[in-house]
Amino acid sequence: MRLFSLILSVIAATTNAYTLPLNCTPNGGIMTSLTYGTEGAIFTVCAQATIHASPVPIYDVLIDFPRYSAWNTFVYSVDVPANVSSAADVYVGMPMTFHSLGLIPLVNSTSNERITYLEPDVMLPFVAWRFDLGMLGGLVMQAEHVSILHDIGDETTEYVSWETYYGAGALLVLTIKGNLQREFEDQTRDLKARVEGLLS
């Protein structure tokens, strides 16, 4: 029975990976998220880069939230539970608070997030986390951030990272979409520089 459950979870994760887009949509179009799909989506921000590394070190840097301050100029700090000190400790359902800079000039902002998917061992490794304001907040706005790693061979990976926003609260965030898009692009460049720097 346990083996059957394990096989089903691997099939589900692989199926999810194959339904995810491998590139940002042209002209900032809506992109699906694993939890919410596309129905009711208001907008998506997306960034991608070719990183000269296999998916494993990229994935490890991406989920090593306690070390974001060492490389990420957008999300400059992440509060995680006391039992999380490295990428190896991250788990599905884990709550986090992101501290970011750049969405509104001269203002630091925070965002409560929760890990929804950790899939490092599938054909197209991916990770996702969602905006988490609890039950009441979820009635106002939902958002999920997905990152997928496509191994294109020769120790090179195409990294695609997007966040899709839903609900009435997303209309307020839409007013700063340009800033959010810029910060996603900066964060992607930061990730590329961090991973390639660690490997050089």
Automatic annotation (TrEMBL):
The keyword Signal applies. InterPro entries: START-like_dom_sf. It comes from the Eukaryota. Keywords: Signal. Residues 1-17 form the signal peptide. SUPFAM superfamilies: Bet v1-like. The keyword Signal applies. This is Coenzyme Q-binding protein COQ10 START domain-containing protein. It comes from Oidiodendron maius (strain Zn).
